[in-house]
Each structure stands twice: as C-alpha cells, then as structure tokens.
Amino acid sequence: MNPITLIIIYFTIFMGPVITMASSNLLLMWVGLELSLLAIIPLLINKKYPRSTEAATKYFVTQATASMIILLAVALNYKQLGMWTFQQQTNNMIINLMLISLSMKLGLAPFHYWLPEVTQGIPIHIGLILLTWQKIAPLSILFQMYHLLNPIITTILAISSVLIGAWGGLNQTQTRKIMAYSSIAHMGWMMAILPYNPNLTFLNLIIYIILTIPMFIALMINSATTINSISLLWNKTPMILAMTSLILLSLGGLPPLTGFLPKWAVISELLKNNAPILATLMAMMALLNLFFYTRLIYSTSLTMFPTNNNSKMMYHHPNMKNNFILPTLTTISTLTLPLSPQLLP
To answer: Where in the numbering of this chain does the NADH dehydrogenase subunit 2 C-terminal domain appear (predicted)?
Structure first.
C-alpha cells in the first residue's frame, strides 16, 4: 500500500476516537466512531486472502449495524428533548438502544460472535489495533453516560462476557482467538464496575492495553499464530518466552503481578456497593481465564515439542535489535502492583 495512503489511514484511525472522547455532542461522537470504522477497513483487506475479506465483511456489517442503531437512538433523543446530549429525562428505551449498540461495537457477549473470527482472519498488528485502540471510543461514550445506564442490563452483559470470554478461550489453539476471548473477558470486568465507579473502568482499560501490547509484540516478532509455533520459542528466543509467560500470568490476574490490580479493585468496589454475589461470580469465572493462560504457558514453557530447528538460543534475534518497547512494557505489566495505593481512589 502507498505510504501516504497508510499515513492518512492511520491518522484517521487515531483521530476517530479522539473526536469521540473530546465531544459532548452525540452526533460528533457518532462521526468519530464512523471515522475509525471506515479507516480500518482498508487495513483489514490489505492482504488479498479470502479469510481477510471475510473478516473485513463481518466487521463492517456488525459495526455498520451498531452505528445505525446509535444514529437511531441519537435521532430519537433529539426528537424527544431537542438536544444532542443524553439527559436524566431521556427515555429508557433510547438508553438501552445505545447500550446494546455500543456493546456490539465492543464485542461484549452475547454480541461477541464477530470478534474472534475477525481477529483470526487479519494480521497480528491489525488485531492489536482492533483489540485496543478501537475499544476506546465506545467505552468513552459509555463513560459519559454511565449514570443513565440500567444496572441490571449492564450486569447481565458483564457476567455473560466474563463467562464467554473464559469458556470460549479454553478450547482454542490459535493465539489471535485466545487474545480475542481475553479481550471479551476484560471488557466484561470493565462493564461490571461501570455503573458503580467509572474511574475503575478507565484504570482497567489502561492496564488491559498495557498488558495486551507486549503480548502482541511478542507474537509479531516470532510470527506466532498458534500454540505450536509459540512452543518453538524455547530454542529461538528464550528471553521472549519468559516475558510471554509473565505477561500471560499478569493477564490472568495472578496476585503478585500488575493484572491482579484491576480485579482486586473491581471486587472490592463491588463489595462496597453491596454486590457480593456479582463479585463472587466474577472471581470464580476469573479462575477459568487463569486456567487457559496457565495451560498456554504449560504447553509453551514446560513441554518440549519436536522441532526441525537445529539452531539453539538465538539471542541476537534480528527483530529484537534496539527493541526497548517489549522489555519496558513487560516490566510495567508485571511490577506495578506496589503503586496501587497511588492509583486507586
């Protein structure tokens, strides 16, 4: 693809969520969502493969449907109140329409079916954009209207997302699908705490992005698309294998690591708001997540798969030269738990 075209596309992808976050006008928020949607489509179909075309079609159809529902909710709200913002007087049906459409954009269960398939059919670096940057705009809209959301519907979305994200990742061998189901589960944790404390949703999102970026970088460096390809890292780049194992444990929320911080904060906040049953269910389902992360670590680190690669310990991996991002983000994603008194409100 032409470099100038790529620059324009990436700039548009960057500006879409920025416009959505910076505006209080619902129509401008919708414009920001559409910018990021239309700009990422050329990247999805950049490789002329049937799988990438299928993924781009699924993504476009789902996101366009959600955008139409958002536009309908915005128009109904303007007809009712004559304003381009949601107010306390806004009809509950309009708020629920907005919540459902944003859930479709985020890939929350039960609207999650498109996310693993799309992530599997696109390149790894585009999957990183899809699972991190593209989540910011819908979450920022939910962040602005959290006080109007129906807590029952929000709780149902949260529980089903954590359950589907954990259960769906158990039988996967493709790393991109595993990361997609991990994203669904993490979005469930963010939705669970949104009606009670939106600042914790923001903290959860930041930590999720910090954990996901180094994981995808490790997969990109080694072109690791399956568990079997990761299992060959022991005689190629053992340092990356150790980093990957730490990041996976942090994603699962193991206590000494950074990933434990958002789960601890969410559970304690739910208990403060008299929701012990929800907190218990979330904690139990988090164990399923930790199980498939641990299974991935076991198959990659503690077993030795047959390999035709006779070169041992490629410490000077060509893609690792001058790559300071991966060690830095790995350190942040594993060692920032002592900062929790400063991070938690």
So the answer is: 290-343
Place of tokens 């072109």: 223
Q: CA nearest 182: which of 275, 270, 87, 250?
A: 250
Q: What is the mean pLDDT of residues 17-45?
A: 93
Q: What is the pTM of this model?
A: 0.91
Q: 63 falls in which pLDDT band (50, 70, 90)?
A: very high
Distance CA(345)–CA(332), nearest Å, equals 20
Domain assignments of the chain as residue spans, ordered by start: 3-343
Q: DSSP character for 69?
A: H
List all residues 6 or more positions away from 268 whose beta carbon is below 8 Å from its beta carbon: none
Q: What letter does residue 320 receive in the DSSP assignment?
A: G
Q: Which residue has the higher pLDDT, 338 or 303?
A: 338
User: Kindly report the CA angle at 304 between 302 and 308, in degrees rounded to 5?
Assistant: 155
Give the residue among 231, 118, 233 at the shortest CA–CA distance from 176. Answer: 118
Local structure of 237: helix, strand or coil:
coil
Under 8 Å between Cβ of 256 and 332: no
Q: How confident is the model at residue 56 (pLDDT cuts 50, 70, 90)?
A: very high
> Do residues 150 and 142 touch, judged by C-beta distance below 8 A?
no
Reduce the DSSP state of residue 321 to 3 states and report it.
coil
Residue closest to 119 by CA, chosen among 183, 186, 69, 199? 183
Q: Where would I find the H helices in 147-275?
A: 151-168, 175-193, 198-222, 227-230, 238-252, 260-272
Average pLDDT over the chain, rounded to whole? Answer: 87
Cα radius of gyration (the chain): 20
244 token code pair? 């990957």
Residue 269 neighbours by CB distance under 10 Å: 19
